[in-house]
Amino acid sequence: MGKTLLLTGQPGIGKTTIIRNVVAQLGKKAGGFYTAEIVGPGGRKGFRLITLDGKETTIAHVDLRDPKAPRVGRYGVDVAALERVGVAALRRAIQEKKLVVVDEIGTMELYSRAFCDTVMQAILGTTPVLGTIMRYPHPESDVFKTLAQVTIWEVNRTTRQDLVEKVIAWLNKNT
């Protein structure tokens, strides 16, 4: 068993909620970020990235129409914002030897080489990592899933009820 625990499952199953509840119990022992939907009239408009030390940025939005920005579905992805705020938060957590929280390793985030490199550095490093990862196959995310240091837990309707306590127990055992 490695020092990285990644939660996977269907979109909307509760992975981020589990991460947020775990982080709430850990306080300042963790660094990194989680993501949140931006909802407006007509449904989801994009995604925000929120660092555990309070910084926030929009990383994807339906109104981001820069022709240089990658697109995932109807969202334009702001790779520079991800790197400026999210990757910086991951690097701080690694440097400060905190639990590195990365929610999520998904299609949008994988457009950033700096993100991929920093996540790999965290997984191969000495501090524990807690994150979420896309369920479906993707060449970049599959690399992380196959590392010996990585343990993957499936979140579904049955498992999600007890996962906060199980994640805390896993962290206590592996830190």
Descriptive account of the structure:
- With 175 residues, this protein is α/β, with parallel strands linked by helices.
- It has one domain: P-loop containing nucleotide triphosphate hydrolases (Rossmann fold, 3-Layer(aba) Sandwich), CATH 3.40.50.300.
- 34% of the residues lie in helices and 30% in strands.
- The protein has five helices and nine strands.
- A nine-stranded mixed beta sheet has the order 5-6-4-3-2-7-8-1-9, with helices on both faces.
- The chain is globular and about 45 Å long.
- The chain starts with a strand and ends with a helix.
Characteristic terms for this protein:
175 residues, alpha/beta, Rossmann fold, 9-stranded mixed β-sheet, 9 strands, 34% helix, 30% strand, globular
Which homologous superfamily in CATH is the superfamily? P-loop containing nucleotide triphosphate hydrolases
* Alpha-beta content class: alpha/beta
Shape: globular
DSSP helix count?
A: 5
Please summarize what this structure is:
This protein is an alpha/beta fold. It has a single domain (4-174), classed as 3-Layer(aba) Sandwich (Rossmann fold).
Give the topology.
Elements: E1 4-8, H1 15-26, E2 30-40, E3 43-51, E4 56-61, E5 71-72, E6 75-77, H2 79-95, E7 99-105, H3 113-124, E8 129-133, H4 139-145, E9 150-154, H5 163-174
Parallel strand pairs: 1-8, 1-9, 2-7, 7-8
Antiparallel strand pairs: 2-3, 3-4, 4-6, 5-6
